[in-house]
Amino acid sequence: MSTNSGLKEFFKSIKGDKMLWSVAALLAIFSFIPVYSASSNLAYLNGASGSTFAYLVKHFIHLVLGFSILYATHKIPYRYFRGLSIILLPVVIVLLIITLLQGTTMQGANASRWIQVPIVNFSFQTSTLASVVLLIYVARYLSKIKEASYTFKDTIVPLWLPVFLVVGLILPANLSTAAIIFTTVLMLTFIGGYTFKYTAAVVGIGMLGLVLFGLSAKAFPDLFPNRVDTWISRVESFTQGEESKEQYQVEKAKIAIATGGITGNGIGKSVQRNFLPQSSSDFIYAIIVEEMGMLGGIGVILAYLFMLYRMAIIVTKSETTYGRLLVIAAGIPIIFQAFINIAVAVEFFPVTGQTLPLVGSGGTSIWMTCLALGIVISVSAKNEIREKADAEQKAKEEDLAIENPLEVLSETI
Hints:
This protein is mostly helical. It has one domain. Helix content is 73%, strand content 3%. It is built from 15 helices and four strands. It has helices spanning 2-13, 18-38, 40-45, 52-74, 80-102, 126-144, 152-170, 175-191, 196-219, 228-240, 245-260, 284-317, 321-345, 363-403, 405-412; strands at 105-106, 109-110, 114-117, 122-125. The strands form two sheets. Strands 1-2 form a two-stranded antiparallel ribbon. It has a two-stranded antiparallel sheet with strand order 3-4. The protein is globular, with a radius of gyration of 24 Å. The protein starts with a helix and ends with a helix.
């Protein structure tokens, strides 16, 4: 009895958009099937010490921590994220600089996207935290200047300097994340009413900077010891069809999707998981389609589209500009990441290294996705409180009208 009452109290304490909670939980529960199946390759590569069950337990722990973050975040009134973004922005910039300079390697490969956390001894991808903090900061600034008059010069330091600083620090190690952040910032500026010609100027500056960076990386490769050559080769192999490690993965992913057919080969019966190095993370969508067919693949896509639909409803219900922009800033990158991951699997995009949110394995990705969802649900919880208050006020007015119709009529007149 005490356990049941405890569960009831817990579910009562969950606020905000219940449908968004549900689709996030369903994706997380569903993820155990492909992660367990796809991890067999990793277990085999690790030899006798490898265990598929161990990867499943690790994924379970990541999800538990992630949903704990989601629960804690959704309890924070969303107005507090304004101040938190200002405080955390310098912190994440310092973390990005440390991450970029350390030149860490993981399992023999360059891992300049991660930073090793002392004492607890786990790696953390700083770019994912930086993207959430920066986008919240941009939402805060755009809501602040919404009704104010300003020039492009006025916005360079408070708005664009942090954007280019964060994106520039992420770019050498993670082009795809930098592109998602920059695209989301541009979307925010458009929706937030920022002057279009100023945005066009920023796009021009950004494109020029990217070209100069690429040329510099080609001319002086020793100056950029991180992943510049990797993402340049990925783009070249995608556009020119050259053979490479990335192209090999894409070909295996396409074979997995092609052999899946309509209903799939059956859960746990994937063949290409034995050949895909990143079958449990970057290419997990291909394993889903191979085992569950197009029905499973379309089901995953519909889940993310439904998530986007719920976010759109939260945006329309929000009473403040900051609330609307905050939902877009925190929520849209999740959808971007999902469809970029799917696009890579079917060779619409070059290999990016983006995991499938809440489905693919990876601790930092899961935690930051849950953090972002917590922020979105925090906005919806505020909408819920306001709607409840409005309904109670309306009910009181209706009761008053029934009890004292003449008094209400005289007040109206």
